Amino acid sequence: MAPIHRSEIVLAEDGKLSLAGLPFRAGDAVEVIVLPAAGPADPNAPHPLHGSVLRYDRPFDPVDDAWDADR
Questions:
Q1: Does 62 fall in a domain?
Q2: 43 vs 18, 38, 48, CA distance in Å?
Q3: pLDDT per residue over 23-33, tens digit each?
Q4: Largest CB tally within 10 Å, which of 39, 45, 58, 62?
Q5: What does the alpha-carbon distance between residue 16 and residue 9 come to, in Å, rounded to a whole number?
Q6: 3-class DSSP state for residue 13?
Q7: Structural domains in the chain (count)
Q8: Exposure string (b/e) for 21-58, b if CB count within 10 Å is 16 or more?
Q9: φ/ψ bin of 17: left (φ > 0), alpha (ψ from -120 to 50), beta (otherwise)
Q10: What is d(CA 8, CA 24) in angstroms, rounded to the nearest whole number?
Q11: Is residue 56 part of a domain?
């Protein structure tokens, strides 16, 4: 497998990205995927599943008979 190189860069100009010091050689084909850097999690934000389950009916019952561990 080819080496993977990950960088976090702050753009100096709108819409322009410049990369230097990459571990690839001239003529190498590379794939470029650009994603925004993940910011720090907001400690006051609710969990994404908060409020999604209203109640559990018999939470310890098997989901299906095929899942019964006693067989």
A1: no
A2: 33, 14, 12
A3: 889 999 999 89
A4: 62
A5: 11
A6: strand
A7: 1
A8: eeeeeeeeeeeeeeeeeeeeeeeeeeeeeeeeeeeeee
A9: beta
A10: 17
A11: no
Question: Which amino acid appears at position 68 of this protein?
Answer: D
18 within a domain of the structure (yes/no): yes
pLDDT in tens, 32-52: 898 888 877 778 888 888 888
Q: What is the CA radius of gyration of the chain?
A: 24
Whole-prediction pTM: 0.45
Cα(5)–Cα(56) distance, integer angstroms: 45
Residue 25 in domain: yes
Q: What does the block give as tokens for 23?
A: 């571990």
